[in-house]
Write a structure and sequence with these properties.
The chain has helices at 3-22, 29-39, 46-57, 66-83, 100-104, 106-125, 132-146, 151-161, 168-194, 198-225, 228-231, 237-240, 246-250, 252-272, 278-289, and strands at residues 93-94, 97-98. By secondary structure, it is mostly helical. The protein has one domain (3-289): Farnesyl Diphosphate Synthase, CATH 1.10.600.10. The protein has a two-stranded antiparallel ribbon with strand order 1-2. Helix 2 (29-39) packs across helix 6 (106-125) and helix 7 runs antiparallel to helix 9. The longest helix is centred in the last third of the chain and has 28 residues, at 198-225. The radius of gyration is 18 Å and the shape is globular.
Amino acid sequence: MKIQSLLRQYKTQIEQQLTAYIEPLQAPETIKEAMLYSLQAGGKRIRPLLLLATLHAFRKPMDIGISVACALEMIHTYSLIHDDLPSMDNDDLRRGKPTNHKVFGEANAILAGDALLTYAFQVIADDKNTSPDVKVRLISELAKAAGPEGMVGGQVADLEGEGKTISLQQLEYIHRHKTGKLLQYSIRAGAILGGATEQQLTLLTAFADYLGLAFQIRDDILDIEGEEQKIGKKIGSDVENDKSTYPALLTLDGAKRKLRDHMTEARTLLEQTEIDASLLHYICDLIETRDH
């Protein structure tokens, strides 16, 4: 099967499964609608796709990773709902649609995010395809990647950096945690489920670190030269919110060079794993050249 077709199949399966997890919940319709609204708003599904692509590299079936992939997308989606709130970025649009709080109100948006975050761990705990020991490891690593030592910590550092001149080292801390830790978890979870050796896991973790930074640099570049219609939100919001970015610190050309350097390092590490990394290489290309 061609790479593009396989990724489309994965994406379709992820989206169908996300809906299947929410619809049967014994919960008020309002919260289910708010959860589904943001889960079904589209998006690249990069994180769950990276997890399934890593499983594919170890020649393992998609079925053993689909629950963890969906849980990961739930946590990413909760972070976007909260990120868009008036108290945070105060965005009106996400992926070309009104943000969750614009449709359901601020209180329900907060609760929808809370619900997705907590339900994600239940999804992994209830997975019938994974042994208890592996589930505990996956839950522990996901909590760390999403929590104060990961995404939440990066978000706090990002908020504290607004309106200030920060160093490249501080900016990389923000992005390694705010964006990179969940991307890194995608790869690590796929490798753990795939039966990676410790050496392979070490190489893939380093690969994911470079990939996460490259992802964010591309985001910063698109905030300057992207097309609003493709991105689905207002261009120039980083400048408007007085945020430090790679182009602001390195110039636009410098940021593009840094992006290329990180992707070169990522691909070099991937080659050293000696796995069938064709899907992962293809996703690397997508991340480096994406226009939304």
